[in-house]
Design brief:
Oligomer: single chain
Strand order of the largest sheet: 9-10-11
Shape: globular
Amino acid sequence: MLDLWIGNPYTRFVNTPVSSLLDRRVYGMLQVDQLLSLKHGTASRWIDGYTRAGKRYPPVVRVEPTGDEIVTWGEFVETRLLAEYRNAGVSLLRMRPAVDQLRETFHPIYPLAHARPYLDIAGRELVLKVQELVGLDRELQLVVVRNNQVVLAESADKFARAAIFGQKDGVVEMLRPVTEIEEVVMDPLRQFGEPIIADRGVRTEIISEQLRAGESIDSIASLYELSRPLIEAALRYELVRSGIAA
């Protein structure tokens, strides 16, 4: 039987240590919008909640609003997951009850920044029970049942393929901003979390600037000691980031 805590999970776990990597303060709210191609102000609403017409809407990501404009790596990881659901047709605030329960099950502050809900069979089964308990909208579900097996829903699967999980503790150590472009990652420990070519840590933005300045792809590859395919991957990501490519 699933042991769930119905009270405030923050109260229960206030003295529980968390991963120093997930707690690392990396981005500003506006930067999160830009990195995840979100409309202006979306990250702030998801992460810290908002007020509209005198009514306060709670955050999805944070346990409670803090007013802090700086986003931790753990908060960013979970916002990256939410970004996969942006076109669900259902308000992402409706995911809040499930996230609250998942804090009890997986982690008191960052329940969805770990491998277990995605890669572990027992973890996915726990997610399924939580979804059923809170009546989570189908469009927002993390797992579904197919052929009598609990598997990741399409959006959660896309996020899991974008995540690089640590071998030791299973936390998300790096993220691909675009799942399909495997060579480009965001690493909170390198280049202030900006998108980089994983092999060398060179920012994709700098590579794009070099091309606009008139340098050839081959000369840029030689300058940074990167292969041509890696340079092309960086440029492909920058096109996606600018909205020129889908």
